[in-house]
TrEMBL record:
Keywords: Membrane, Transmembrane, Transmembrane helix. Residues 1-29 are annotated as: Disordered. The chain crosses the membrane at residues 54-76, 101-121, 133-150, 162-189, 210-229, 235-255, 276-293, 322-342, 354-374. This is Uncharacterized protein. The lineage of its organism: Eukaryota, Fungi, Dikarya, Basidiomycota, Agaricomycotina.
Length: 392
């Protein structure tokens, strides 16, 4: 009898040891998966578990956004080449041209020529008077710059969306419209659009402060200098403002005293988005609002020419048309991408309805910022068990 009891105890002990070993292996496996998931999230169960999720999370964006990229490349390139805009800009930067835009910024002829072309383009928007399209873009595009920076700071995000400086520099080099069609595809495919509230979805207070400082010092101030000074050298150095923003953010993070506890930066992020929402809406109402009751004037102002402008059109008119296409694809792809923020069909309908109402009245910049505000609140849902380190 005693032998049987001992034998039974041994079985129980072995069973417990086996369970403990299995639990340990599971924890190691979970940690390993957690490291891999941010990069290859579209292969995870949350996206690929069902046919419905696979189509919505992978196939559909894989069709729509590359199509937008291809269409954007074609239409924006045509606006540059067929209209003669590119040739006029190149003529101002040709060797021997009597142009104030030519400067040996780097000493490399090809790079300096490219910079000269950018300077010539923006001065077609700045002179003889500031283009309303450039002013509108500057006043309503805060969301386009801030959103990638905020998402890059979230814990567990994919490496594909971890460097907003790349988004900014590509936007300067190949237009922000084309760049964002690529960014949003990466954002959705890596699972960032389907992120839900948890202890890792928060932006910390130091991170939020760094983003705000970088946006103000590295983006807003250089852009104000661009429009106020109208100086070719200022315009040239403005082209790399994403670098200034990145350096400013890193410098702030380095110099800021390290807090003992990591507080949530939700309130700061919310305030930043609210400021962008108000400023974007005001800019839209001031520039586009007076034309809302005049459909022909509104259509002429908002929509670019379907066919490239004739070569006889003025340089400023061609530059305006180019910028319109850039605006269309930048904000159009952003409005489309926010539909993937919905957690169910009801939210999808609400987001789509919001855009239908808000885009004409307060503009696409404010409309997208409003959705970002709602998403940030959802990612900081009070119903979720909070991490004790994240206290408001």
């Amino acid at each position: 009898m005693t032998q049987r009891v001992r034998s039974a105890k041994g079985v129980v002990s072995d069973s417990r040891g086996s369970d403990d070993a299995k639990a340990k292996r599971k924890r190691i496996s979970d940690k390993s998966n957690a490291r891999v998931a941010p990069v290859f999230h579209f292969f995870s169960s949350t996206t690929m578990s069902t046919k419905h999720g696979f189509v919505n999370g992978f196939v559909l964006p894989g069709i729509l956004f590359p199509a937008l990229t291809a269409l954007g490349v074609r239409l924006i390139t045509n606006s540059l080449t067929v209209s003669g805009l590119g040739a006029e800009l190149s003529a101002q930067c040709a060797p021997g041209a009597n142009s104030s835009y030519i400067h040996p910024f780097t000493g490399v002829h090809g790079i300096d020529g490219f910079i000269c072309g950018l300077v010539a383009f923006f001065h077609a928007e700045l002179e003889p008077q500031l283009s309303p399209y450039l002013l509108y873009f500057a006043g309503t595009s805060g969301f386009l710059m801030a959103f990638p920076a905020i998402e890059a700071h979230r814990k567990g995000r994919s490496l594909f969306i971890a460097f907003p400086i790349i988004v900014g520099l590509l936007g300067q080099a190949i237009t922000i419209g084309i760049t964002l069609t690529i960014y949003w595809l990466a954002f959705i495919w890596t699972g960032a659009s389907s992120r839900r509230a948890d202890a890792h979805s928060h932006i910390t207070k130091p991170q939020a402060e760094s983003i705000i400082f970088a946006t103000a010092v590295g983006s807003m101030l250089p852009s104000m200098g661009l429009m106020l000074f109208k100086d070719p050298k200022v315009t040239a150095y403005w082209q790399i403002f994403p670098v200034y923003a990145s350096v400013a953010g890193l410098a702030y993070s380095f110099l800021r005293p390290t807090p003992r506890t990591t507080e949530s930066g939700y309130k700061l992020v919310r305030q930043m988005y609210m400021g962008m929402f108000v400023s974007s809406a005001i800019m839209h109402l001031c520039i586009v609002g007076p034309k809302l009751l005049d459909p022909p004037a509104l259509a002429s102002f908002v929509f670019p020419s379907i066919t490239p402008l004739p070569t006889t059109a003025s340089l400023s008119a061609k530059a305006d048309d180019f910028l319109k296409w850039d605006l269309i694809f930048a904000f159009g792809s952003s409005v489309l991408a926010t539909l993937w923020f919905a957690r169910d069909a009801a939210e999808l309908i609400v987001i789509a309805s919001w855009h239908l109402f808000a885009v004409p009245l307060i503009g696409p910049g404010a409309s997208c910022t409003g959705i970002a505000l709602w998403r940030e609140a959802a990612l900081n849902d009070e119903e979720v068990e909070p991490n004790p380190r994240f206290k408001q």
